[in-house]
Amino acid sequence: MGHYCEEHGTVFFKKGKMKGYAHPLEENGQTIGWCNEPEEGGDEVPETATGESGTVPPTRNDEITENMFWKLLGEAIFSKDIDTSKPYGKALRATFYAKMLSVLPIKIEKEE
């Protein structure tokens, strides 16, 4: 028996004071509820395209988690929660700006 939610294509997890296995239900990067694993257990984790059993297939949760990381880092930088005058702050700010430049549709034209 696995801890996989076939309905939502993700894995149930249990940590801390959680009484049972569950996973968050998210919409637009916000948790709107929880899906609890049934008492009889979850579904078996499906085989991946390479046939490796027991590995978790990628889900949109991975993408949402990365997007939330960049959003939170940006908020921390712009709200001055991170001291950007210190070396670690400068490095985080530079990393954030580099990421934003790589994903934003910006066209930079060279002046002659």
Could you please describe the fold and organization of this structure?
- The chain has 112 residues and is an alpha+beta fold.
- It folds into two domains: 1-57, no CATH class; 59-106, no CATH class.
- Helix content is 32%, strand content 15%.
- The chain has a two-stranded antiparallel sheet with strand order 1-2. It has a two-stranded antiparallel sheet with strand order 3-4.
- α1 packs across α2 (87-103).
- The longest helix has 19 residues, at 60-78.
- It is elongated.
Can you give me a brief rundown of this structure?
The protein has 112 residues and is an alpha+beta fold.
Q: What's the arrangement of strands in the largest beta sheet? A: 1-2
Low-confidence stretches: 48-54
Question: Which of globular, elongated, flat, extended, rod-shaped describes the shape?
Answer: elongated
> How many distinct domains?
2
How many extended strands? 4
Structural class by sheet pairing and helices:
alpha+beta
Overall pLDDT: 74
> Biggest β-sheet, characterized?
2 strands, antiparallel
Series of H and E elements: EEEEHH
From the alpha carbons, calculate the radius of gyration and give it in angstroms: 20 Å
* Count of runs of 4 or more consecutive helical residues: 2
Query: How far is the first residue's CA from the last residue's CA?
Result: 66 Å
Query: Can you give the helix content as a percent range?
Result: 25-40%
How large is the share of residues in beta strands? Answer: 15-25%
Key attributes of the depicted protein:
alpha+beta, 4 strands, single chain, elongated, 2 helices, two-stranded antiparallel sheet, 15% strand, two-stranded antiparallel ribbon, 112 residues, 2 domains
